[in-house]
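Narrative summary of target 7.
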Amino acid sequence: MLKAEQLSVSYGESVVLNDVNLQVPSGAIVSLIGRNGVGKTTLLKAIMGLLRPKKGKITLGGADITTYPPDRRARCGIGYVPQGREIFPYLTVYENLCVGLSERDDLVLEEVLDLFPMLKSLLTRMGGNLSGGQQQQLAIARALVRRPRILLLDEPTEGIQPSVVTDIKRVIKTINKKKNVSILLVEQYLDFALGVADYFYVMENGRIVLQGVTRDVELEKLKEHLAV
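Modeled conformation, tokenized:
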């Protein structure tokens, strides 16, 4: 489905990603784990086209999308929920959901709202007046209305209450199994990352240093790479 091959990204003279190889198979959930500042968000931004790689290649379904701008990648089926959510605070929940749609699709809106029942009663509320958990659900819902083939999620559990974390875990599994949406998840909460994913990658200093199937993970070995 999605592959990053020998991907390197720099900010000026500072190399942030160095020859990263990562893939998300069709229908899979993949967690990207690592300490703060190791390059996880940079990788998602490079996949979304918000950062231009210094070298390497990104493919989606076998097609080379390395030079595509972000809007074209979105049309190809990549959905992106950034860290910090970035919803529009002065638009209503409903208006946030409709942003980016070429035409209103009541059916897909209803399908997405069925995943997030809490949002149904908040459609006329301004995005900036939502709680952190509600904003996160709105950010994910906004990405889903475009019917993505793959969804990039950056720290979806950050700063939200446990009950909403449970809801987000449920939604991730539902859209993966029932909607066949592949997912690349960046997550600091280790239990969540391993509990929801089929495969994992660990990043350290801009490189992939460990990878495997989550059911076979050696926790002690994994935690060595996450210790501060």
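DSSP finds nine helices and ten strands in the chain.
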